[in-house]
Design goal:
This protein is α+β, with helices and mostly antiparallel strands. Helices cover about 40% and strands about 15% of the residues. It is extended, with a radius of gyration of 29 Å.
Length: about 400
Protein backbone atom coordinates (compact mmCIF):
# COMPACT_ATOMS: atom_id res chain seq x y z
CA UNK A 1 0.00 0.00 0.00
CA UNK A 2 2.86 2.38 0.79
CA UNK A 3 5.27 3.92 -1.69
CA UNK A 4 7.79 6.69 -1.26
CA UNK A 5 6.33 10.15 -1.86
CA UNK A 6 9.58 11.09 -3.53
CA UNK A 7 9.06 8.31 -6.07
CA UNK A 8 5.81 9.88 -7.15
CA UNK A 9 7.38 13.27 -7.67
CA UNK A 10 10.18 11.77 -9.75
CA UNK A 11 7.57 11.17 -12.44
CA UNK A 12 7.08 14.92 -12.85
CA UNK A 13 8.97 15.73 -16.02
CA UNK A 14 11.13 18.87 -16.16
CA UNK A 15 12.81 20.02 -19.36
CA UNK A 16 16.58 20.47 -18.86
CA UNK A 17 16.78 23.82 -20.59
CA UNK A 18 13.82 25.73 -19.19
CA UNK A 19 12.71 23.80 -16.11
CA UNK A 20 9.14 23.93 -17.43
CA UNK A 21 6.64 21.47 -16.03
CA UNK A 22 5.42 18.77 -18.41
CA UNK A 23 2.45 16.44 -17.89
CA UNK A 24 3.14 15.30 -14.33
CA UNK A 25 2.38 11.74 -13.30
CA UNK A 26 2.11 12.05 -9.53
CA UNK A 27 1.22 8.48 -8.52
CA UNK A 28 3.96 5.84 -8.73
CA UNK A 29 3.33 3.02 -11.20
CA UNK A 30 1.58 0.08 -9.57
CA UNK A 31 0.67 1.94 -6.40
CA UNK A 32 -3.04 1.67 -7.09
CA UNK A 33 -2.91 -2.14 -7.07
CA UNK A 34 -0.88 -2.60 -3.87
CA UNK A 35 -2.30 -3.24 -0.41
CA UNK A 36 -0.51 -3.68 2.87
CA UNK A 37 -1.32 -6.78 4.90
CA UNK A 38 -0.62 -7.61 8.51
CA UNK A 39 2.67 -9.38 9.24
CA UNK A 40 2.38 -10.25 12.93
CA UNK A 41 0.98 -13.74 13.67
CA UNK A 42 -1.73 -14.68 16.09
CA UNK A 43 -0.59 -16.53 19.23
CA UNK A 44 -2.79 -19.41 20.40
CA UNK A 45 -2.40 -21.41 23.62
CA UNK A 46 -3.05 -25.10 24.03
CA UNK A 47 -2.72 -25.67 27.74
CA UNK A 48 0.79 -24.43 28.63
CA UNK A 49 2.06 -24.55 25.05
CA UNK A 50 1.86 -21.50 22.80
CA UNK A 51 1.61 -21.83 19.05
CA UNK A 52 2.06 -19.20 16.37
CA UNK A 53 -0.63 -19.08 13.69
CA UNK A 54 0.15 -17.04 10.56
CA UNK A 55 -2.54 -14.43 10.02
CA UNK A 56 -2.89 -12.16 7.05
CA UNK A 57 -5.55 -9.54 6.60
CA UNK A 58 -5.60 -5.96 5.36
CA UNK A 59 -3.64 -4.06 7.97
CA UNK A 60 -5.45 -0.71 7.95
CA UNK A 61 -9.19 -0.31 8.35
CA UNK A 62 -10.86 3.06 7.93
CA UNK A 63 -13.13 3.80 10.90
CA UNK A 64 -14.57 7.29 10.47
CA UNK A 65 -13.68 10.81 9.29
CA UNK A 66 -12.05 13.14 11.80
CA UNK A 67 -11.93 16.43 9.93
CA UNK A 68 -11.55 18.30 6.67
CA UNK A 69 -9.15 21.14 5.92
CA UNK A 70 -7.70 23.19 3.12
CA UNK A 71 -4.91 20.68 2.53
CA UNK A 72 -6.92 17.44 2.71
CA UNK A 73 -9.00 15.25 4.97
CA UNK A 74 -8.14 13.38 8.17
CA UNK A 75 -9.66 9.98 8.96
CA UNK A 76 -9.39 7.54 11.86
CA UNK A 77 -7.64 4.28 10.95
CA UNK A 78 -7.46 0.98 12.84
CA UNK A 79 -4.02 -0.67 12.62
CA UNK A 80 -4.65 -4.41 12.96
CA UNK A 81 -0.96 -5.25 13.36
CA UNK A 82 -0.18 -3.01 16.33
CA UNK A 83 -3.82 -2.97 17.50
CA UNK A 84 -4.10 0.77 17.85
CA UNK A 85 -5.90 3.66 16.23
CA UNK A 86 -3.99 6.24 14.21
CA UNK A 87 -4.95 9.36 12.29
CA UNK A 88 -4.39 9.42 8.53
CA UNK A 89 -4.23 12.65 6.56
CA UNK A 90 -4.63 12.33 2.81
CA UNK A 91 -5.01 14.38 -0.31
CA UNK A 92 -8.01 13.97 -2.61
CA UNK A 93 -7.52 11.85 -5.75
CA UNK A 94 -5.94 13.76 -8.61
CA UNK A 95 -4.66 16.57 -6.37
CA UNK A 96 -2.95 19.44 -8.16
CA UNK A 97 0.84 19.52 -8.16
CA UNK A 98 0.84 22.57 -5.87
CA UNK A 99 -1.10 20.69 -3.20
CA UNK A 100 1.13 17.63 -3.52
CA UNK A 101 4.25 19.75 -3.09
CA UNK A 102 2.78 21.45 -0.01
CA UNK A 103 1.74 18.05 1.34
CA UNK A 104 5.26 16.70 0.93
CA UNK A 105 6.65 19.76 2.69
CA UNK A 106 4.19 19.31 5.57
CA UNK A 107 5.32 15.71 6.05
CA UNK A 108 8.99 16.62 6.02
CA UNK A 109 8.44 19.62 8.28
CA UNK A 110 6.55 17.62 10.91
CA UNK A 111 9.09 14.84 10.59
CA UNK A 112 11.82 17.36 11.38
CA UNK A 113 10.02 18.79 14.41
CA UNK A 114 10.43 16.13 17.08
CA UNK A 115 8.74 17.75 20.07
CA UNK A 116 6.17 16.63 22.69
CA UNK A 117 3.76 19.41 21.64
CA UNK A 118 3.91 18.50 17.93
CA UNK A 119 2.19 15.37 16.60
CA UNK A 120 4.68 12.78 15.25
CA UNK A 121 4.53 11.19 11.78
CA UNK A 122 4.39 7.35 11.72
CA UNK A 123 4.31 6.50 8.01
CA UNK A 124 3.74 7.83 4.49
CA UNK A 125 2.42 6.30 1.30
CA UNK A 126 -0.10 6.18 -1.52
CA UNK A 127 -3.36 4.30 -1.06
CA UNK A 128 -5.19 2.07 -3.53
CA UNK A 129 -7.06 5.07 -4.96
CA UNK A 130 -3.86 6.97 -5.68
CA UNK A 131 -4.19 9.35 -2.71
CA UNK A 132 -1.02 10.48 -0.97
CA UNK A 133 -1.25 10.11 2.80
CA UNK A 134 0.69 10.19 6.02
CA UNK A 135 -0.12 8.55 9.34
CA UNK A 136 0.29 10.21 12.70
CA UNK A 137 -0.64 9.71 16.31
CA UNK A 138 -4.39 9.82 16.97
CA UNK A 139 -4.92 12.58 19.51
CA UNK A 140 -7.80 12.39 21.92
CA UNK A 141 -9.41 15.38 23.57
CA UNK A 142 -10.88 18.53 22.08
CA UNK A 143 -9.65 21.49 20.11
CA UNK A 144 -9.28 24.96 21.56
CA UNK A 145 -12.05 25.98 19.18
CA UNK A 146 -14.40 23.57 20.99
CA UNK A 147 -13.19 24.69 24.44
CA UNK A 148 -13.73 28.37 23.61
CA UNK A 149 -17.22 27.59 22.28
CA UNK A 150 -18.14 25.79 25.52
CA UNK A 151 -16.73 28.58 27.66
CA UNK A 152 -18.63 31.12 25.58
CA UNK A 153 -21.85 29.23 26.31
CA UNK A 154 -20.91 29.39 30.03
CA UNK A 155 -21.00 25.62 30.41
CA UNK A 156 -20.26 25.00 34.08
CA UNK A 157 -17.89 22.06 33.58
CA UNK A 158 -15.82 24.10 31.10
CA UNK A 159 -15.67 27.13 33.41
CA UNK A 160 -14.54 24.91 36.29
CA UNK A 161 -11.99 22.96 34.23
CA UNK A 162 -10.51 25.92 32.35
CA UNK A 163 -9.99 28.90 34.69
CA UNK A 164 -7.51 31.54 33.61
CA UNK A 165 -4.55 29.76 35.21
CA UNK A 166 -5.26 26.58 33.22
CA UNK A 167 -5.72 28.56 30.00
CA UNK A 168 -2.32 30.14 30.53
CA UNK A 169 -0.79 26.68 30.97
CA UNK A 170 -2.44 25.50 27.74
CA UNK A 171 -1.10 28.54 25.92
CA UNK A 172 2.38 27.89 27.32
CA UNK A 173 2.22 24.42 25.73
CA UNK A 174 1.48 26.07 22.38
CA UNK A 175 4.36 28.50 22.91
CA UNK A 176 6.78 25.65 23.68
CA UNK A 177 5.92 23.99 20.36
CA UNK A 178 6.40 27.24 18.44
CA UNK A 179 9.61 28.07 20.27
CA UNK A 180 11.03 24.74 19.13
CA UNK A 181 9.79 25.18 15.54
CA UNK A 182 11.15 28.73 15.34
CA UNK A 183 14.46 27.48 16.68
CA UNK A 184 14.52 25.04 13.75
CA UNK A 185 13.81 27.90 11.37
CA UNK A 186 10.11 27.17 10.66
CA UNK A 187 7.08 29.43 11.04
CA UNK A 188 3.59 27.89 11.15
CA UNK A 189 1.49 30.57 9.33
CA UNK A 190 -1.88 29.02 10.26
CA UNK A 191 -2.19 29.22 14.05
CA UNK A 192 -5.81 29.18 15.21
CA UNK A 193 -7.92 27.45 17.90
CA UNK A 194 -8.98 24.69 15.49
CA UNK A 195 -5.33 23.69 15.08
CA UNK A 196 -4.64 23.26 18.81
CA UNK A 197 -5.63 19.99 20.52
CA UNK A 198 -5.95 19.67 24.30
CA UNK A 199 -5.89 16.10 25.61
CA UNK A 200 -7.72 14.60 28.59
CA UNK A 201 -4.64 15.02 30.81
CA UNK A 202 -3.94 18.59 29.72
CA UNK A 203 -1.46 17.67 27.00
CA UNK A 204 -1.27 20.30 24.25
CA UNK A 205 -0.48 19.59 20.59
CA UNK A 206 -0.11 22.02 17.67
CA UNK A 207 -1.56 20.55 14.47
CA UNK A 208 -1.68 21.21 10.73
CA UNK A 209 1.75 22.33 9.57
CA UNK A 210 0.66 22.35 5.93
CA UNK A 211 1.45 26.04 5.45
CA UNK A 212 4.68 26.03 7.46
CA UNK A 213 7.77 27.33 5.72
CA UNK A 214 11.38 27.90 6.57
CA UNK A 215 12.14 31.57 7.30
CA UNK A 216 14.27 33.05 4.56
CA UNK A 217 13.40 30.40 1.99
CA UNK A 218 12.10 31.73 -1.33
CA UNK A 219 8.34 31.88 -1.73
CA UNK A 220 7.05 28.95 -3.75
CA UNK A 221 5.72 30.11 -7.11
CA UNK A 222 2.05 29.69 -7.91
CA UNK A 223 1.95 26.73 -10.28
CA UNK A 224 -0.28 26.41 -13.35
CA UNK A 225 -3.78 25.44 -12.35
CA UNK A 226 -3.47 26.95 -8.85
CA UNK A 227 -6.12 29.57 -7.94
CA UNK A 228 -4.53 33.04 -7.88
CA UNK A 229 -7.33 34.92 -6.17
CA UNK A 230 -6.46 35.99 -2.64
CA UNK A 231 -9.05 34.09 -0.61
CA UNK A 232 -12.46 32.77 -1.51
CA UNK A 233 -15.34 34.85 -0.11
CA UNK A 234 -17.24 33.91 3.04
CA UNK A 235 -14.60 31.54 4.43
CA UNK A 236 -12.86 33.55 7.16
CA UNK A 237 -12.22 30.47 9.32
CA UNK A 238 -10.88 28.23 6.54
CA UNK A 239 -7.30 27.79 5.39
CA UNK A 240 -7.00 28.81 1.76
CA UNK A 241 -4.33 28.42 -0.90
CA UNK A 242 -3.37 31.07 -3.40
CA UNK A 243 -1.50 34.37 -3.36
CA UNK A 244 -2.48 34.91 0.31
CA UNK A 245 -2.29 31.84 2.53
CA UNK A 246 -3.66 31.30 6.02
CA UNK A 247 -6.89 31.86 7.92
CA UNK A 248 -8.11 35.49 7.65
CA UNK A 249 -9.30 35.94 11.25
CA UNK A 250 -5.90 34.93 12.66
CA UNK A 251 -3.53 36.48 10.14
CA UNK A 252 -0.92 39.06 10.97
CA UNK A 253 -1.15 42.34 9.02
CA UNK A 254 1.89 41.46 6.90
CA UNK A 255 0.42 38.05 6.13
CA UNK A 256 -2.86 39.65 5.05
CA UNK A 257 -0.88 41.87 2.68
CA UNK A 258 0.73 38.82 1.12
CA UNK A 259 4.24 39.84 2.20
CA UNK A 260 5.46 36.25 2.50
CA UNK A 261 9.17 37.03 2.17
CA UNK A 262 8.94 39.60 4.99
CA UNK A 263 7.26 37.21 7.42
CA UNK A 264 9.21 35.77 10.33
CA UNK A 265 8.52 34.50 13.85
CA UNK A 266 6.80 37.78 14.75
CA UNK A 267 3.99 36.97 12.31
CA UNK A 268 3.30 33.77 14.27
CA UNK A 269 3.51 35.86 17.46
CA UNK A 270 0.66 38.05 16.21
CA UNK A 271 -1.49 34.98 15.42
CA UNK A 272 -0.64 33.46 18.80
CA UNK A 273 -1.73 36.65 20.54
CA UNK A 274 -5.04 36.74 18.64
CA UNK A 275 -5.61 33.13 19.68
CA UNK A 276 -4.73 33.90 23.32
CA UNK A 277 -7.01 36.96 23.35
CA UNK A 278 -9.92 34.80 22.20
CA UNK A 279 -9.11 32.09 24.76
CA UNK A 280 -9.09 34.66 27.57
CA UNK A 281 -11.91 37.00 26.61
CA UNK A 282 -14.07 34.48 24.68
CA UNK A 283 -14.50 37.08 21.96
CA UNK A 284 -12.61 37.77 18.76
CA UNK A 285 -11.26 41.25 18.17
CA UNK A 286 -12.89 41.21 14.70
CA UNK A 287 -16.30 39.98 15.87
CA UNK A 288 -19.11 41.37 13.73
CA UNK A 289 -17.23 41.26 10.43
CA UNK A 290 -18.54 38.74 7.92
CA UNK A 291 -16.94 39.26 4.52
CA UNK A 292 -13.34 38.26 3.89
CA UNK A 293 -12.40 41.61 2.26
CA UNK A 294 -13.63 43.48 5.35
CA UNK A 295 -11.71 41.13 7.61
CA UNK A 296 -8.51 41.44 5.59
CA UNK A 297 -8.74 45.23 5.79
CA UNK A 298 -9.51 45.22 9.53
CA UNK A 299 -6.55 42.91 10.24
CA UNK A 300 -4.30 45.70 8.99
CA UNK A 301 -6.08 48.62 10.65
CA UNK A 302 -8.17 47.63 13.70
CA UNK A 303 -6.35 47.70 17.03
CA UNK A 304 -7.30 45.74 20.12
CA UNK A 305 -10.06 47.26 22.26
CA UNK A 306 -9.02 46.61 25.86
CA UNK A 307 -12.69 46.84 26.94
CA UNK A 308 -13.34 43.62 24.99
CA UNK A 309 -11.44 41.75 27.71
CA UNK A 310 -14.24 42.40 30.25
CA UNK A 311 -17.39 41.41 28.40
CA UNK A 312 -18.03 37.87 29.68
CA UNK A 313 -19.60 38.13 33.12
CA UNK A 314 -19.71 34.36 33.76
CA UNK A 315 -15.94 34.10 34.17
CA UNK A 316 -15.06 37.47 35.69
CA UNK A 317 -12.58 40.02 34.32
CA UNK A 318 -9.46 38.92 32.50
CA UNK A 319 -6.33 39.48 34.66
CA UNK A 320 -4.89 42.88 33.80
CA UNK A 321 -1.35 41.62 33.23
CA UNK A 322 -2.64 39.18 30.60
CA UNK A 323 -4.56 41.96 28.86
CA UNK A 324 -1.37 43.98 28.41
CA UNK A 325 0.51 40.86 27.34
CA UNK A 326 -2.00 40.27 24.52
CA UNK A 327 -1.95 43.94 23.50
CA UNK A 328 1.80 43.88 22.98
CA UNK A 329 1.67 40.68 20.94
CA UNK A 330 -1.02 42.15 18.67
CA UNK A 331 0.88 45.32 17.77
CA UNK A 332 0.42 46.11 14.09
CA UNK A 333 4.11 46.95 13.77
CA UNK A 334 6.20 43.75 14.04
CA UNK A 335 8.97 45.75 15.71
CA UNK A 336 6.67 46.53 18.66
CA UNK A 337 5.70 42.90 19.32
CA UNK A 338 7.62 40.43 21.42
CA UNK A 339 10.98 39.77 19.84
CA UNK A 340 10.53 35.99 20.15
CA UNK A 341 8.26 33.28 21.52
CA UNK A 342 10.87 32.69 24.22
CA UNK A 343 10.27 36.24 25.44
CA UNK A 344 6.54 35.50 25.59
CA UNK A 345 7.23 32.38 27.68
CA UNK A 346 9.48 34.36 30.02
CA UNK A 347 6.91 37.11 30.55
CA UNK A 348 4.07 34.66 31.17
CA UNK A 349 6.12 32.79 33.76
CA UNK A 350 6.96 36.11 35.41
CA UNK A 351 3.25 37.02 35.53
CA UNK A 352 2.37 33.66 37.07
CA UNK A 353 5.01 34.23 39.74
CA UNK A 354 3.70 37.72 40.52
CA UNK A 355 6.54 39.60 38.80
CA UNK A 356 4.11 41.83 36.95
CA UNK A 357 5.00 44.73 34.67
CA UNK A 358 3.20 47.93 35.69
CA UNK A 359 0.93 49.31 32.95
CA UNK A 360 -2.08 50.61 34.91
CA UNK A 361 -3.54 50.90 38.42
CA UNK A 362 -4.62 47.26 38.45
CA UNK A 363 -1.18 45.96 37.54
CA UNK A 364 0.42 48.33 40.10
CA UNK A 365 -1.81 47.03 42.90
CA UNK A 366 -1.23 43.39 41.92
CA UNK A 367 2.54 43.89 41.72
CA UNK A 368 2.60 45.55 45.15
CA UNK A 369 0.49 42.78 46.64
CA UNK A 370 2.66 40.01 45.19
CA UNK A 371 5.84 41.77 46.32
CA UNK A 372 4.42 41.84 49.83
CA UNK A 373 3.68 38.11 49.70
CA UNK A 374 7.17 37.32 48.43
CA UNK A 375 8.70 39.46 51.17
CA UNK A 376 6.67 37.52 53.73
CA UNK A 377 8.02 34.23 52.34
CA UNK A 378 11.61 35.46 52.40
CA UNK A 379 11.46 36.97 55.92
CA UNK A 380 8.96 34.94 57.98
CA UNK A 381 10.45 36.03 61.37
CA UNK A 382 10.18 39.69 60.45
CA UNK A 383 6.56 39.09 59.46
CA UNK A 384 5.88 37.40 62.79
CA UNK A 385 7.45 40.27 64.74
CA UNK A 386 5.55 42.81 62.68
CA UNK A 387 2.35 40.91 63.37
CA UNK A 388 3.04 40.85 67.12
CA UNK A 389 3.81 44.55 67.11
CA UNK A 390 0.61 45.19 65.19
CA UNK A 391 -1.44 43.11 67.62
CA UNK A 392 0.21 44.90 70.55
CA UNK A 393 -0.64 48.29 69.12
CA UNK A 394 -4.25 47.25 68.56
CA UNK A 395 -4.55 45.91 72.14
CA UNK A 396 -2.90 49.03 73.57
CA UNK A 397 -5.21 51.23 71.56
CA UNK A 398 -8.25 49.25 72.74
CA UNK A 399 -7.14 49.48 76.40
CA UNK A 400 -6.55 53.22 76.05
CA UNK A 401 -9.98 53.75 74.53
CA UNK A 402 -11.57 51.64 77.26
CA UNK A 403 -9.87 53.61 80.05
CA UNK A 404 -10.80 56.88 78.42
CA UNK A 405 -14.42 55.77 78.20
CA UNK A 406 -14.50 54.72 81.86
CA UNK A 407 -12.91 58.02 82.90
CA UNK A 408 -15.57 59.97 81.03
CA UNK A 409 -18.48 58.23 82.74
CA UNK A 410 -20.19 60.17 85.60
CA UNK A 411 -19.42 58.90 89.14
Amino acid sequence: MSQSLAAGLENTLITPSTGAQLAPTLVPAGAATQRRNTVLPRVEWTGQQPSVVPLQRERFEEVRPLGQGGMGEVVLIRDHDIEREVALKRLPPGAELDRVLRFVEEIRTVGTLDHPNIVPVHDVGVDDQGRYFFMMKHLKGETLESIIARLRRSELDALVRYPFQVRVQIFLGVLHALSYAHGKGFIHRDLKPANIMVGPFGEVTVLDWGLARRVGSPTAPVLPGTPTEAIAPARPLQTELGSVVGTPLYMSPEQARGEHDAMDARSDIYSLSVLFHELLSLTHYLDGLQSVPDIMKAVQTRTLDMASMHVNSAQGPVPAELMWFVKMGMSKDPQERFASVDEMVSQLHAALEGRIHVHCQRTLLKRTFHQGLRAADRHPMALTLAGLVGVGLVVASAVHLGLSFLASMPH
